[in-house]
From TrEMBL:
Belongs to the isochorismatase family. Its EC number is 3.5.1.19. It comes from Parapedobacter defluvii. NCBIfam families: PRK11609.1 (NF008623). This is nicotinamidase. The keyword Cytoplasm does not apply. SUPFAM superfamilies: Isochorismatase-like hydrolases. Residues 3-183 form the Isochorismatase-like domain. InterPro entries: Isochorismatase-like_dom, Isochorismatase-like_sf, Isochorismatase_Nicotinamidase. Keywords: Hydrolase, Metal-binding, Pyridine nucleotide biosynthesis. Pathway: Cofactor biosynthesis; nicotinate biosynthesis; nicotinate from nicotinamide: step 1/1. Gene3D superfamilies: Isochorismatase-like (3.40.50.850).
Amino acid sequence: MHALIVVDIQYDFLPNGALAVPMGDEIIEKINRIQQDYDLVVATQDWHPAGHKSFASAHSGRKPFEVIDLGGLEQVLWPDHCVQESGGAELAGLLDTRRIEAIFRKGTDPDIDSYSGFFDNGKRKNTGLAGYLRDRKVTAVSVCGLAADYCVYFTAMDALELGFDTYIVEEAVRPIDASAYMDKRATFLQRGGKLR
Ligand SMILES: [Zn+2]
């Protein structure tokens, strides 16, 4: 079984969103088209309580994209985004969700960020995604979505570590920072990840 993991196709990550990924909207049609190539499709959704500690606004005197120490982890501070129940947190209307069997929400703990669809950034809690995939006899996963250099990358790295045969679908990802993505992509390939 080969699963497609569709990462964070939410309005706040699309052009005009609170944390827009450049050309993030370009990949939605591609994701719709490739879903038919997989046995199973699941999605992740960034889903923060208001005042989440990954937001610059939660730290006095800090600005978005500054880096701080948060509970012993390096944390990029983001603009407020994907606040639970807000319009920006909704999955994009153009995304075909008919084949998405389950949606795994992440970033729900106010004190820790969660880039990966499997675990928070400190690996303190898991989202249930790994168990779900194993129950469905999934052995290979392909990851697509936003953003390539954060949530796609960390989801793919955790999938590798969990023992899945892991691919990044490059035509169906977009990064916040293209050069940062190239470095992370090299790490992913070194660890045995593949592209398709
Ligand atoms: Zn977030």
